[in-house]
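Researcher: Re-running this chain for the archive, since the previous output was lost when a drive failed. Same request as before.
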Amino acid sequence: MSRPHVLLARAVFPAVVERLREHFEVDDNPADIIHSPAQLTARLQGKAGAMTTGSERIDAVLLAACPELRVVANMAVGYNNFDIAACTAAGVLATNTPDVLTETTADFGFALMMAAARRMAESEHFLRRGEWTRWSYDMFTGSDVHGATLAILGMGRIGQAIARRGALGFGMRVIYHNRSPLTPEQEAPIQARYVDKATLLREADHLVLVLPYSAASHHAIGSAELALMKPTATLTNIARGGIVDDAALAAALHERRIAAAGLDVFEGEPAVHPALLTLPNVVLTPHIASATVATRRAMAELAADNLVAALTGGTPPTPINAAGLKR
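Model: Regenerated structure tokens:
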């Protein structure tokens, strides 16, 4: 009996590739080429499964051209690169990698927030340019994190992990807005209080975005929302590009209508809005919130677990569309 063929759309840990070769005929991508939609469609011909990342769009057009495809395993917790309705209609199982990156991503989000609040990137560039010649009382004065109001938009696993760091580690007052409130039992350990979105924005000293991207959350933070924030507030986005209107944010930062921002994700990434690149009061990182060796390895292993289970008669540990399991 022939073994299923699978595509590894991007480069991944060699040990994970070898593990998958024990079960499948593997078409891998050690050069880490990012494929155009046409190239991806071509490479998926005859494939029963694929391990993907956020750079591969799986939609109705591709699925119609790849009738043998049965499972797409995203090496990410987000899956806005998948058209889930189209996957379900085509009988294709979609999976992701939740949980394994929660704590690492929360660490990074908190670090990015602190870097923005305390002007770390701006002051480092100042020092590297050789401009530090003396001390002054107001040199790079920023805003405190301890005791401040931490406002979280989106309160899933990562949002709750950030809230826990803020409340228990830094004595912060935690408020949040979400599609639905947490239960009192979930709120109590992280000392979080549900508020409406307008209140969240008005009261935030430090706003952190951790909501999933969808059509409904596109530009959830735009000019109107930024206008509600304090001029001393910071904004941190570790969610997805497109949740923030980057042009509106750049204008607000330039005009000092908010104090600073920390951004790990961008609209149209890897492109970054040119105005953001010119601003001193924004910390920019290249979508690396989950980037520790241990976490990225765990993400790859979980994606592999999903792929192996789906194509060898097992139960994938983290399905997105349970209806896809029927096939």
